[in-house]
Amino acid sequence: MPRIPVHTVDSAPEASRDALTALESQYGKVLNIHGEMAHSPAVLHAYVALQDVLREHGTLDARTREAIALAVGKEDDCDYCQAAHTGGGRKAGLSDDEMIDVRRGRAAEPRLDAILVLARELAARVGNTSDEAWQSALDAGWSDEQLTELTTHVTLNLLTNYFNHHVHTELDVPAAPEA
Protein backbone atom coordinates (compact mmCIF):
# COMPACT_ATOMS: atom_id res chain seq x y z
CA MET A 1 0.00 0.00 0.00
CA PRO A 2 1.42 3.41 -0.96
CA ARG A 3 2.61 5.66 1.82
CA ILE A 4 1.44 8.82 0.06
CA PRO A 5 -1.41 9.54 -2.34
CA VAL A 6 -0.86 10.08 -6.06
CA HIS A 7 -1.34 13.72 -6.96
CA THR A 8 -3.20 14.82 -10.05
CA VAL A 9 -2.09 17.97 -11.82
CA ASP A 10 -4.85 19.87 -10.01
CA SER A 11 -4.03 18.53 -6.53
CA ALA A 12 -0.24 18.84 -6.84
CA PRO A 13 1.67 21.69 -5.22
CA GLU A 14 1.85 24.68 -7.54
CA ALA A 15 5.61 24.27 -8.01
CA SER A 16 5.08 20.72 -9.33
CA ARG A 17 2.21 21.38 -11.74
CA ASP A 18 4.09 22.38 -14.90
CA ALA A 19 6.48 19.42 -14.65
CA LEU A 20 3.62 17.04 -13.86
CA THR A 21 1.62 18.38 -16.80
CA ALA A 22 4.58 17.81 -19.12
CA LEU A 23 5.02 14.24 -17.83
CA GLU A 24 1.29 13.60 -18.23
CA SER A 25 1.55 14.74 -21.86
CA GLN A 26 4.60 12.55 -22.44
CA TYR A 27 3.09 9.37 -20.95
CA GLY A 28 -0.61 9.94 -21.67
CA LYS A 29 -1.49 10.02 -17.96
CA VAL A 30 -0.04 10.92 -14.60
CA LEU A 31 1.91 7.81 -13.69
CA ASN A 32 1.80 6.88 -10.02
CA ILE A 33 5.52 7.51 -9.61
CA HIS A 34 5.19 11.03 -11.02
CA GLY A 35 2.07 11.83 -9.00
CA GLU A 36 3.89 10.74 -5.87
CA MET A 37 7.07 12.62 -6.74
CA ALA A 38 4.92 15.74 -7.13
CA HIS A 39 4.56 15.92 -3.32
CA SER A 40 8.08 17.37 -3.36
CA PRO A 41 8.82 19.78 -6.20
CA ALA A 42 12.52 19.18 -5.48
CA VAL A 43 12.17 15.46 -6.17
CA LEU A 44 10.03 15.89 -9.27
CA HIS A 45 12.26 18.60 -10.74
CA ALA A 46 15.46 16.66 -9.97
CA TYR A 47 14.02 13.65 -11.81
CA VAL A 48 12.95 15.77 -14.79
CA ALA A 49 16.28 17.62 -14.85
CA LEU A 50 18.28 14.39 -15.04
CA GLN A 51 16.06 13.15 -17.86
CA ASP A 52 16.41 16.46 -19.71
CA VAL A 53 20.20 16.53 -19.36
CA LEU A 54 20.51 12.98 -20.68
CA ARG A 55 18.14 13.73 -23.54
CA GLU A 56 20.04 16.90 -24.49
CA HIS A 57 23.64 15.78 -23.91
CA GLY A 58 23.54 11.99 -23.69
CA THR A 59 25.20 9.73 -26.23
CA LEU A 60 23.51 6.41 -25.44
CA ASP A 61 20.66 5.31 -27.71
CA ALA A 62 17.17 4.55 -26.39
CA ARG A 63 17.67 0.79 -26.61
CA THR A 64 20.80 0.93 -24.45
CA ARG A 65 19.19 3.34 -21.97
CA GLU A 66 16.19 1.03 -21.52
CA ALA A 67 18.44 -2.01 -21.11
CA ILE A 68 20.39 -0.14 -18.41
CA ALA A 69 17.15 0.75 -16.65
CA LEU A 70 16.00 -2.88 -16.75
CA ALA A 71 19.33 -4.16 -15.45
CA VAL A 72 19.42 -1.65 -12.59
CA GLY A 73 15.73 -2.20 -11.80
CA LYS A 74 16.36 -5.92 -11.51
CA GLU A 75 19.51 -5.38 -9.44
CA ASP A 76 17.49 -3.18 -7.05
CA ASP A 77 14.42 -5.44 -7.17
CA CYS A 78 12.17 -2.59 -8.32
CA ASP A 79 9.07 -4.15 -9.86
CA TYR A 80 7.68 -0.74 -10.86
CA CYS A 81 10.76 0.24 -12.85
CA GLN A 82 11.10 -3.18 -14.46
CA ALA A 83 7.46 -2.90 -15.59
CA ALA A 84 7.75 0.71 -16.79
CA HIS A 85 11.00 0.04 -18.66
CA THR A 86 9.61 -3.11 -20.25
CA GLY A 87 7.14 -0.83 -22.02
CA GLY A 88 9.94 1.62 -22.81
CA GLY A 89 12.17 -1.21 -23.99
CA ARG A 90 9.55 -2.38 -26.47
CA LYS A 91 9.26 1.15 -27.85
CA ALA A 92 13.07 1.29 -28.13
CA GLY A 93 13.21 -1.97 -30.10
CA LEU A 94 14.07 -4.57 -27.46
CA SER A 95 12.21 -7.86 -27.75
CA ASP A 96 10.58 -9.46 -24.72
CA ASP A 97 13.20 -12.22 -24.81
CA GLU A 98 16.03 -9.66 -24.90
CA MET A 99 14.56 -7.82 -21.93
CA ILE A 100 14.13 -11.02 -19.94
CA ASP A 101 17.75 -11.92 -20.70
CA VAL A 102 18.89 -8.47 -19.53
CA ARG A 103 16.93 -8.89 -16.30
CA ARG A 104 18.43 -12.36 -15.84
CA GLY A 105 21.89 -10.80 -16.00
CA ARG A 106 23.05 -11.53 -19.53
CA ALA A 107 22.46 -9.73 -22.83
CA ALA A 108 22.94 -11.77 -25.99
CA GLU A 109 24.85 -8.95 -27.69
CA PRO A 110 28.41 -8.83 -26.30
CA ARG A 111 28.68 -5.03 -26.65
CA LEU A 112 25.43 -4.39 -24.78
CA ASP A 113 26.31 -7.03 -22.19
CA ALA A 114 29.62 -5.31 -21.45
CA ILE A 115 27.99 -1.99 -20.50
CA LEU A 116 25.28 -3.77 -18.52
CA VAL A 117 27.87 -5.62 -16.44
CA LEU A 118 29.33 -2.23 -15.56
CA ALA A 119 25.84 -0.79 -14.83
CA ARG A 120 25.03 -3.68 -12.49
CA GLU A 121 28.35 -3.22 -10.68
CA LEU A 122 27.68 0.51 -10.30
CA ALA A 123 24.31 -0.23 -8.72
CA ALA A 124 25.31 -3.21 -6.60
CA ARG A 125 28.71 -2.03 -5.42
CA VAL A 126 27.91 1.62 -4.65
CA GLY A 127 29.85 2.83 -7.67
CA ASN A 128 32.90 0.64 -7.08
CA THR A 129 33.28 -0.97 -10.48
CA SER A 130 36.06 -3.36 -11.35
CA ASP A 131 38.91 -2.61 -13.71
CA GLU A 132 37.96 -5.78 -15.61
CA ALA A 133 34.37 -4.62 -16.22
CA TRP A 134 35.59 -1.17 -17.30
CA GLN A 135 38.16 -2.64 -19.69
CA SER A 136 35.66 -5.14 -21.09
CA ALA A 137 33.29 -2.29 -21.89
CA LEU A 138 36.10 -0.34 -23.60
CA ASP A 139 37.12 -3.47 -25.53
CA ALA A 140 33.48 -3.91 -26.60
CA GLY A 141 33.56 -0.47 -28.23
CA TRP A 142 32.16 1.86 -25.57
CA SER A 143 33.96 5.20 -25.21
CA ASP A 144 35.23 6.89 -22.06
CA GLU A 145 32.46 9.47 -22.57
CA GLN A 146 29.78 6.78 -22.68
CA LEU A 147 31.15 4.92 -19.67
CA THR A 148 31.29 8.17 -17.75
CA GLU A 149 27.73 9.01 -18.83
CA LEU A 150 26.64 5.59 -17.58
CA THR A 151 26.99 6.93 -14.04
CA THR A 152 24.15 9.40 -14.64
CA HIS A 153 21.90 6.76 -16.22
CA VAL A 154 22.42 4.47 -13.25
CA THR A 155 21.91 7.38 -10.83
CA LEU A 156 18.60 8.29 -12.48
CA ASN A 157 17.45 4.69 -12.19
CA LEU A 158 18.61 4.42 -8.59
CA LEU A 159 16.61 7.56 -7.83
CA THR A 160 13.42 6.06 -9.23
CA ASN A 161 14.07 2.60 -7.75
CA TYR A 162 14.76 3.98 -4.29
CA PHE A 163 11.82 6.37 -4.52
CA ASN A 164 9.45 3.54 -5.40
CA HIS A 165 10.71 1.42 -2.53
CA HIS A 166 10.53 4.37 -0.14
CA VAL A 167 6.92 5.36 -0.87
CA HIS A 168 5.61 1.93 -1.96
CA THR A 169 4.48 3.01 -5.43
CA GLU A 170 1.66 0.84 -6.74
CA LEU A 171 1.96 -0.58 -10.23
CA ASP A 172 -0.19 1.30 -12.75
CA VAL A 173 1.47 -0.08 -15.90
CA PRO A 174 1.48 -3.70 -17.12
CA ALA A 175 3.75 -5.90 -15.02
CA ALA A 176 7.03 -7.08 -16.53
CA PRO A 177 7.08 -10.71 -17.61
CA GLU A 178 8.68 -13.10 -15.13
CA ALA A 179 12.44 -13.29 -15.46
From TrEMBL:
Pfam families: CMD (PF02627). PANTHER family: CMD DOMAIN-CONTAINING PROTEIN, SI:CH211-175M2.5. GO terms for molecular function: peroxiredoxin activity. It comes from uncultured Nocardioides sp. Residues 41-113 form the Carboxymuconolactone decarboxylase-like domain. Gene3D superfamilies: AhpD-like. The lineage of its organism: Bacteria, Bacillati, Actinomycetota, Actinomycetes, Propionibacteriales. It comes from the Bacteria. This is Carboxymuconolactone decarboxylase-like domain-containing protein.
